[in-house]
Amino acid sequence: MLTKGIDVRASRTHNVGLFATETVPAGTAVWAPCTKCSRWSKEEVAALPEARFTALDTYGHLLRDGSLLLPCLGAYLMNHSCEANVLDLGLDFGIAVRDIAPGEEVTCDYATFVEDAGWSMRCLCRGPGCRGTVTTDQGGDPAVTGRWKDRVEQALRQLPEVDQPLHDILAPLSEPYGRALRGLSTLDQVSSGASVCAPSFVR
Ligand SMILES: [Zn+2]
Ligand SMILES: [Zn+2]
Question: Which stretches make up the SET domain (predicted)?
Fold first, then answer.
């Protein structure tokens, strides 16, 4: 499920991407796996023809239980940036780690999808911190995850202060969301190993 105020438009780096149509404040839960997202079980994934799997894996992502999830409401069109404004480290939802201005592209970091081991892509973000090639192995690099952690924890401190359009979806599904809403803000306190690749509704 994707928060409000985000629309699909032509992208500079890819064919299409997600763009803010209104300010999305830091601390906003931007997207989360939900029961409306398309799912293929581990057995269904194994039975997919190779080309079909490749196509689905481009837009979807593998969950920890081996199933494949295609995020609903266009959330699967979120492009990668090495300076992503949405991160999900230790969370089962993506959080805005800085204010996203109207017209700005909404991006996440594909290196966070560590369950998709061995995956890589040439990056087109051309940001100052561009890693050139983005790989899911980078999601295990302490230098990369340390920067993500600082940004996510800063955003978690703002989570209780901002409007949360996804509240009704997240409140019953996400334990990390509930803890952050109660004012906990370090990943040690909030996370308990949560990940968008192991969302609570799957467990
Ligand atoms: Zn969904
Ligand atoms: Zn890049």
Answer: 4-111
Distance from residue 100's CA to the centre of ligand 1 (Å): 21
CATH topology for 6-37+72-190 is Beta-clip-like (2.170.270)
Pairing relation of β-strands 105-108 and 16-20?
antiparallel
CA geometry: angle at 176 spanning 159 and 196, to 5°?
Answer: 105
Please tell me the number of the ligand nearest to residue 121's CA. 2
Reduced to 3 states (helix: H, G, I; strand: E, B; else coil), residue 21 is coil
Q: How confident is the model at residue 45 (pLDDT cuts 50, 70, 90)?
A: very high
Instruction: Give the residue extent of every domain in the chain.
Output: 6-37+72-190
Protein residues placing their CB within 5 Å of the ion ligand 1 = 1, 34, 36-37, 72
Calpha distance 27→78 (Å, rounded): 18
Task: Give the Å distance between the CA of 132 and the centre of ligand 1.
Answer: 30
Tens digits of residue pLDDT in 65-86: 889 999 988 888 999 999 999 9
